[in-house]
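In this notebook, the sequence line spells out the residues, with the fold written below as integer tokens. This is how one looks.
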Amino acid sequence: MSAAVLLTGLALVGVVGGVLFHRGISNWLAAIGGLLLFVVAFVWVVPEIAQAWGWPLAILCVSVAAVLLALADAALIRLGHSPRHGVMTPLLIATAIHSLLDGWSIRELAAHPVPVALVPIGLGLHKVPEGFALGWVLRRSMSTHARAISFGISAEMFTLLGAFLQPVADRSGLEKFGPAWTPAVLCVIAGAFVFLGCHAVLPYFRHEH
């Protein structure tokens, strides 16, 4: 839980920085975090899924999870550009979902053979630019600093909610679904890492090229 608290703190620092300073931030920090998430997903998480389900099914399920997250994220972005909807609601929902998965992932993987430092470092390098970008957008769209910061904090606090819910949901899932529950959850986590990695790395290469 302490790692989730640290991640939330980093995100909140980013939100406040984005609201108060209105500066752009280099994509390289997020790109490094994205690459680390790729490493964690493909070197440690996917092989553990493959032990239970085999490599073809593991890769297929992780790919499906990543695509579904990307489609949901794209749908929220399109919703934000609709004249019938404000951009802030889809943005805050997307950030809350990302944060929930971050908190869930870091606590879930604490019980698995993943190097202790890599997941917090990868997610941390992702959370700071995410928080900064969120704060910058919120400040441009809201009337006061306090309002922008409060909305940003509310979305990022879902990191703690995800970490809090994980043990309860894990016990319930194991009782209902048995051994299949753990690899299924790891598929979602690995898919989320692949999605977040692409989300972080691709803008860096577009910016550089």
In short: The CA atoms of residues 67 and 195 lie 8 Å apart. The chain has one domain: 2-22+37-208.
